[in-house]
Task: structure prediction
Amino acid sequence: MEKITTTRKKKKYFNEIINFINLEKKHKIIYPPNHKIFYFLKITEFYRVKVVIIGQDPYYQTNQANGLAFSVPKGIKIPPSLINIYKELSNDILGWKFPNHGCLYKWAIQGVFLLNTILTVEHGKPFSHSNVGWNFFTDYIISLINKHLTGIIFLLWGSKAQKKINLIDSNKHYILKSSHPSPLAAHRGFFGCKHFSKVNKILLLNNQKKIDWSLI
Result:
């Protein structure tokens, strides 16, 4: 996965993004820290990807963003959207128990690709980097997964994630859609979607090992 970043460095837009981030960091607080911006690429190996969960931009408060969509480091208060993800898991997966943390590293190493479409954010300002150019890069990643892998399960939660549907070939991949798990939208279709058990049913049908969603 790290080769993806190396390849993109040859693109003008990518260098413009990096230059912008470096300039912003001189007088603003930007999340996540540099070594975590591409953490999702380091943790989930390309040919081990089974599931893609598409998020929006990183969490924008102190110490929250850790380079994995919807995830926060251990010891940080669990954000509302992730609490709702946990609520759905507890109703969907028999015996699933609430963890005391919000770190989703365990999912990532099993092949759950936790991709934010925007990879940086200014402190206290959600979507502040939505027009920086990150979408070109993350669309490229989705396109690579679509082209080179088969049978990937894409979880598209909310309208922003669902805008990526034109990058995905539904004849070779699986697409599960619902509303976003945020407190404002979860009741519109996320609660009760049963995406986690559906993912495991699809994986088993394709003779693949199911995801252990537990975080304890």
